[in-house]
Amino acid sequence: MNTIGHWINGSYARVGPRTAPVTNPATGKVTAEVALAGVEDGNAAVAAAKAAFPAWRDTSLTRRTQILFAFRELLNARKGELAAIITSEHGKVLDDALGEVSRGQEVVEFACGMPHLVKGSYTENASTKVDIHSVRQALGPVAIISPFNFPAMVPMWFFPLAIAAGNTVVLKPSEKVPTAANWMAELWKEAGLPDGVFNVLQGDKVAVDTLLTHPDVKAVSFVGSTPIAKYVYETATAHGKRVQALGGAKNHMIVLPDADLDLAADAAINAGFGSAGERCMAISALLAVGGIADELVAKIADRARALRTGDGLRGCDMGPLVTSAHRDKVAGFVDAGEESGATLVVDGRTIDADAEGEGFFVGPTLFDHVTTNMSIYQEEIFGPVLSVLRVNSFDEALATINANPYGNGTALFTNDGGAARRFQNEVEVGMVGINVPVPVPMAYYSFGGWKNSLFGDTHAHGSEGVAFFTRGKAVTTRWVDPSHGGINLGFPQNA
Ligand code: NAD
Question: Which residue CA neighbors atom 17 of ligand 1 most closely?
């Protein structure tokens, strides 16, 4: 059986005794095993990143961005390979996997502009014959810890900027989808990146804890569920690191009575069932305002029943869930929703999926008459389960969103500009869509939620990403001339 190992200092490293199976979720078959790092493997990865840092930091911006451009060209030419890897380990349909790679590529393209992004400023004669300038410098080795649901895009939210800014990286991908990270590591090598600048540490909690506590790791970018994000934030900050830890979500979509209900129904399907609901920006709660719910639910149900669920390589609309345990968890939520009195309009538990073998499928599932005390509303299900809540007013809908502990993404569907303006101003959520169901910001804006959806101060990519992976320095300069003022113990004042 193929063993997926660690990529350290430009080649595959030894694999220790601990491994875990890797599964194709569409067939249920074990396709490989992945190494689970021990502490010594983690230390080796950090040591490689530390050793590579001084030379990489001092490599000219011109040379660094040439390598970024080369990586972009290779990725663009070969992204089909990466998409196929994602589909085989995650299960999302091939088009969706390609879309994920393209969104990651946009961050690589943004990072190609690093010479402009790290430009400092210069002030002549700030005081008499004294000049001041600012620079932004790399931090050192940084750790990136990513979730299963975006094996390529989420790491690419971070590593292009980290590397372009002069840092070195240890990426710890999800053990459920380990191959994409190694594929990208090999691509970096082909693009000319020096050994040790980009390393991949495969593993589980042991690998994560090694990175969070290692004295040579200067910063941690984490994406995953809220409890682990909170743990990562608390542990790594306690060890003196800069941390951005993006957590889970419960994203709401409001549909006002004046909205185009066909547009809203299409959007609910796309955002509720795309990637089988395994997106942190998936819509899982739809707030139908006023008397539109019967008509809207009927439109969504018709569309949901028409979706084809099956193997992502067979041109289906929706693929499987990532593991059998996750499939059982999602089905358990559907059981709980029924028991709590919600109306099950479309039941995905008994789906005839277009696939060979024993894949982990749950079909599109739609609940109506959901209330905020039900577990299907309160918990992040992370599956193809859309809940419709009926509310009486815009104010009630807005208050529901703002009372929710998560604040990742949200969307409003309306033709009323005044309502839209109030919504974007008052909603306590980090990423807002107006008639856009999955408002993932472009690479030159920053991605991140509020409240329990993000721990730390900076969001991913955009200017906040550049700030995260660099630290500022202000340099005050005086070249001594005959007019220097002699001894003065007072606090420096400008004149
Ligand atoms: P997860 O929290 O289980 O795992 C994320 C990472 O943490 C993985 O690399 C995993 O190996 C590691 N990990 C797991 N348990 C750990 C532990 N006890 N100690 C230390 N490390 C541990 O998340 P997942 O199931 O892989 O991904 C789905 C979650 O990620 C969902 O909650 C989703 O909303 C969230 N997510 C959020 C965003 C965002 O931008 N906010 C984006 C994608 C996914």
Answer: 205
The residue among 108, 64, 110 whose CA lies nearest residue 462 is 110
Pocket test residue of 223, 380, 458, 459 for ligand 1, highest count of atoms within 8 A of CB:
223
Whether residue 148 has its Cβ less than 6 Å from ligand 1:
yes
- Helix (H) or strand (E) segment spanning residue 267: helix 261-273
Task: Give how far the C-alpha of residue 401 lies from the chain's centroid of Cα atoms, to the nearest Å.
Answer: 21
Give the per-residue pLDDT at 289.
98
- Does residue 324's CB lie within 6 angstroms of at least one atom of ligand 1? no
Dump the DSSP string for 90-114: H---HHHHHHHHHHHHHHHHHHTTH
pLDDT of residue 482: 66
Q: Which residues, in sequence order, are CB contacts of 264 under 8 Å at separation 6+? A: 253, 255, 296, 413
The answer to whether the CB of 224 is under 6 A from ligand 1 is: yes
DSSP state letters, 50-64: HHHHHHHHTS-HHHH
For residue 17, how far is the Cα from the chain centroid? 30
Quote the ligand 1 centre to 105 CA distance (angstroms). Answer: 22
Q: Are 382 and 362 in contact (CB under 8 A)?
A: no
pLDDT 10s digits, 58-97:
999 999 999 999 999 999 999 999 999 999 999 999 999 9
Q: How far is CA 203 from CA 76, 86, 207, 247, 253, in A?
A: 28, 18, 5, 19, 36
Domains recognised in the chain with CATH numbers: 3-247+453-476 (3.40.605.10), 251-434 (3.40.309.10)
- Return the active site residues: 280
Residues of the chain with pLDDT under 70: 482-484
Q: What does 394-449 look like in DSSP terms, one character per residue? A: HHHHHHHHHHSSEESEEEEE-S-HHHHHHHHHH---SEEEES-SS-PPPTTS-B--
**Contact between residue 136 and residue 471 where contact means Cβ atoms under 8 Å apart:** yes
User: How far, in Å, CA of 163 to CA of 150, rounded?
Assistant: 20
**Per residue in 168-179, pLDDT tens?**
999 999 999 999
34 forms bridges with which residues in the sheet? 4, 20
pLDDT value at position 484?
A: 66
